[in-house]
Amino acid sequence: MAESKTTGSAAGTADNRQEKERPLRKPDWLKIPIRRGNNLAYVEDLLKDSTLNTVCKEANCPNRMECYSNKTATFMILGSVCTRGCRFCNVTGGKPGCPDPEEPAKLAQAVKALGLKFAVVTSVTRDDLEDGGSSVFAEVIREVHALDPPVGIEVLIPDFQGRREDLETVLEAGPEILNHNVETVPSLYSTVRPEAVYERSVELLARVKENHPEIYTKSGLMLGVGETEEEVLQVMRDLRKANVDFLTIGQYLAPSKEHLPVKKYVSPESFKKYEQKALEMGFKAAACAPFVRSSYNAAVMLESLK
């Protein structure tokens, strides 16, 4: 009898373990409607012909079809291979090639062809480059500003391993918005983005305002990777202490079974509460919803201040 009871308990434990390892079922609010617009093929062909990358495609963004159909995209410079291996990200990791010296000019021409009034540019992390790619960011900013009529720009930058001179290279080019995502709460950095440092990211954002108060700053988080509500609120307080202007919070969606699993699907109501709390804390604008990404409708935040 005792042996049978033990066997049953072990089987039950195995069943529980299997249950825990099963992917969470997506709730109805995370069903992505099929979006097909007249401009979809045009944007895809333009990017292909220009040999330009977008984070929309490389990161498998859920808003890609919508943005492409609206003749917009978030450009990703410095190649499509990242030197880091964050467990949440779909961008390919490995050894990247040399940057394309024509990329800044080609990107500016794509911005003009799309008729954009505001451009958003990010990059893979290039720890292999002496300046982390900061000089390429600066050249992109200058090329976009030189368009006629001039186009505003938001740059979503890596941490440049904390090098102040590289950050200053980007800031001196004068982007309208400097974005750098903290991504998650400090307790999860070793799991989610082990090659990054939370304090380093917050310090980077604080330095922008210290040296260039005229430039708006922005940061973002993804939820559902194991954080608590209080941890999220504390990150928001840390960002406000660093005088960050804009905040984005969205739901993490695992790109594949090999990536970090989703621990929780946060309800739209909870996102709304975070958005309200952000405004109460003093953020100039906040976008918090399941499908929000750091670059989604980026120009709207800037326009809301006018």
Topology:
Elements lengths: L1 H20 L18 H10 L3 E2 H4 L5 H6 L4 E4 L3 E2 L9 E2 L9 H12 L3 E6 L10 H12 L6 E5 L7 H9 L4 E3 L9 H4 L5 H14 L4 E8 L5 H13 L4 E6 L16 H14 L3 E4 L9 H6 L3
Helix pairs in contact: 5-6, 6-7, 10-11
Structure write-up:
The protein is an alpha/beta fold and 306 residues long. The protein has a single domain, classed as Aldolase class I (TIM Barrel). 41% of the residues lie in helices and 14% in strands. An eight-stranded mixed beta sheet has the order 1-2-5-6-7-8-9-10. It has a two-stranded parallel ribbon with strand order 3-4. Helix 5 runs parallel beside helix 6. It starts with a helix and ends with a helix.
Strand count, sense and closure of the main sheet?
8 strands, mixed
Give the total of beta strands. 10
Proportion of strand residues = 5-15%
One letter per element, helices H and strands E, the order comes to: HHEHHEEEHEHEHEHHEHEHEH
The name CATH uses for the topology is TIM Barrel
Give the overall average pLDDT. Answer: 84
C-alpha-based Rg, rounded? 21 Å
Helix content: 40-55%
Shape: globular
| CATH C-level name | Alpha Beta
Structural class: alpha/beta
Q: Strand order across the biggest sheet?
A: 1-2-5-6-7-8-9-10
CATH architectural type: Alpha-Beta Barrel
**Overall tally of structural domains:** 1
Q: Count the helices. How many? A: 12
Q: Distance N terminus to C terminus? A: 76 Å
Low-pLDDT stretches: 1-20
Keyword list:
globular, two-stranded parallel sheet, TIM Barrel, disordered N terminus, 306 residues, alpha/beta, 14% strand, 41% helix, eight-stranded mixed β-sheet
